[in-house]
């Protein structure tokens, strides 16, 4: 037997192994793609259900389309705030002079208070209430909406969720008018941070032609570590002075805020 003939079966076996390996790899890729597709459709179905149950408007379908347009089939780390311009145009915010409330590190207190009184926060608007506490993103090459595996602000700043809230916060502040209220946290050393959404976006958008005054409510608890004399508030006051907006600050205990919540008529006036 020739040496070449003895090696031929070995070559054939190797060729078969290569073909089999390629076939297995292709099958795995197909299975993964199918699973991801099924997961994407399932996750989209879940968030869409929540979206429409909270929306309850005649044009919710249009709003959903504008929402998806911002992030679908895009790298979830390259979604700029401008991507949500069509969504904000589809569901614009309305001015509620004297009733608009902003907050920083006091979400739970503010949410409970606003629900029972005439004050309105970003989370009380159509878009804010629909998307509050939700996570979403898209992926390049997919038309689906995903709710798992999405990047956070720690991963990248221009992720779909962070960009939406920055965009919405700016738009909400743009329509602020009359006497505006902001609840800050008296249980942390720096109640006003220029790096927060309130400090870096909302405060910057206040305009003296619409906004008469900014009334800061410093929420004081038993473990309060600061109050209206905190040095960080000097930056806030200085910015309001520069804009020509009247600045006020008052220390209010959380228990007093809760008491005001039980008296919605009084809280819409000068409860504290």
TrEMBL record:
It comes from Amphilophus citrinellus. It is an enzyme of class 3 (hydrolase). This is ADP-ribosyl cyclase/cyclic ADP-ribose hydrolase. GO terms for biological process: positive regulation of B cell proliferation. The keyword Hydrolase applies. Keywords: Disulfide bond, Hydrolase, Membrane, NAD, Transferase, Transmembrane, Transmembrane helix. One of its GO terms (cellular component) is plasma membrane. Belongs to the ADP-ribosyl cyclase family. One of its GO terms (molecular function) is NAD+ nucleosidase activity, cyclic ADP-ribose generating. Its EC number is 3.2.2.6. The lineage of its organism: Eukaryota, Metazoa, Chordata, Craniata, Vertebrata. InterPro entries: ADP-ribosyl_cyclase. Pfam families: Rib_hydrolayse (PF02267). The chain crosses the membrane at residues 16-38. The keyword Hydrolase applies.
């Amino acid at each position: 037997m020739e040496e070449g003939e003895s090696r031929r079966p070995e070559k054939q076996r190797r060729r078969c192994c290569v073909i089999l390996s390629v076939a297995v790899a292709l099958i795995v890729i197909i299975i993964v793609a199918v699973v991801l597709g099924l997961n994407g459709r399932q996750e989209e179905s879940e968030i869409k259900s929540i979206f429409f149950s909270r929306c309850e408007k005649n044009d919710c379908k249009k709003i959903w389309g504008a929402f998806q347009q911002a992030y679908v089939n895009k790298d979830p780390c390259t979604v700029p705030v401008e991507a949500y311009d069509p969504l904000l145009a589809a569901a614009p915010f309305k001015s509620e002079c004297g009733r608009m409330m902003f907050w920083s590190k006091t979400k739970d207190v503010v949410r409970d208070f606003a629900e029972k009184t005439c004050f309105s926060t970003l989370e009380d608007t159509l878009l804010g209430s629909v998307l509050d506490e939700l996570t979403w993103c898209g992926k390049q090459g997919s038309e689906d909406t995903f709710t798992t595996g999405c990047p956070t602000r720690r991963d990248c700043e221009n992720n779909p969720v962070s960009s939406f809230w920055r965009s919405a916060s700016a738009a909400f502040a743009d329509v602020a008018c009359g006497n505006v209220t902001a609840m800050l946290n008296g249980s942390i050393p720096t109640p006003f941070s220029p790096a927060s959404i309130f400090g870096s976006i909302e405060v910057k958008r206040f305009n003296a032609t619409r906004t008469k005054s900014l009334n800061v409510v410093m929420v004081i608890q038993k473990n309060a570590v600061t109050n209206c004399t905190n040095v960080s508030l000097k930056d806030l006051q200085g910015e309001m002075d520069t804009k020509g907006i009247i600045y006020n600050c008052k220390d209010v205990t959380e228990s007093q805020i809760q008491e005001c919540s039980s008296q919605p008529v009084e809280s819409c006036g000068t409860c504290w």
